Amino acid sequence: MIKETKYYTCEYCFKEFEPKRRRVQKYCSNSCRSSAYQQRKANLNNTKDNLPKLKDCNAPQVPHKEKISAAGVGNAALGVLAANTAKSLLTPRKNRPATKGDIDTLLEKLDNRFHLVKNMNPDAQGAYPYFDLLEGKIVYLRPQ
């Protein structure tokens, strides 16, 4: 059997060469292959430089500085006023937060500073937990 030799033309230097591998080779050597890559890369960069620059979506955006106007401040104040009015009208009296006046009235009615906490157990010495209305914390006192 006679082996047929087929020659290819290098796509970079345009010389004929005998392929060394089974598959089709485009270049005659590694240096031609590398040079062709460098040339393609340079051409790609040149075409990119000639194109108009598009806005980059990933580029950081310059923050927009908002301006304060009298109309904006007035609208904000009216909005807060409307929200607070609606909240006070729609909240039942028993669910409203206690004020200092409410606590003073409670102290006058109870006529006592300490009140027994029934859902807590006594401590190891037998003292019972009481809530101090003036201090606002739990204290343990022995019954007299």
What labels describe this entry?
3 helices; alpha+beta; three-stranded antiparallel β-sheet; elongated
Order of helices and strands: EEHHHEEE
Overall number of strands? 5
Beta-strand percentage range? 5-15%
Q: Shape, please?
A: elongated
In what order do the strands lie side by side in the largest sheet?
Answer: 3-4-5
What's the end-to-end separation, in Å? Answer: 123 Å
Largest sheet: number of strands, sense, barrel closure: 3 strands, antiparallel
Q: What's the helical proportion of residues?
A: 25-40%
Look at the structure and give the mean pLDDT: 83
Structural class, by secondary structure, is alpha+beta
Poorly predicted spans: none
Q: What's this model, at a glance?
A:
The chain has 144 residues and is of the alpha+beta class.
Per-chain topology:
Layout: E1 8-9, E2 16-17, H1 30-50, H2 70-90, H3 100-110, E3 114-116, E4 128-132, E5 137-141
Antiparallel strand pairs: 1-2, 3-4, 4-5
Structural description of this entry:
It is a single chain. The strands form 2 sheets. Strands 3-4-5 form a 3-stranded antiparallel sheet, with no helix packed on it. It has a two-stranded antiparallel ribbon with strand order 1-2. It is built from 3 helices and 5 strands. It has helices spanning 30-50, 70-90, 100-110; strands spanning 8-9, 16-17, 114-116, 128-132, 137-141. Strand 4 (128-132) and strand 5 form a beta hairpin. Helices cover 37% and strands 12% of the residues. The longest helix has 21 residues, at 30-50. The protein has 144 residues and is of the alpha+beta class.
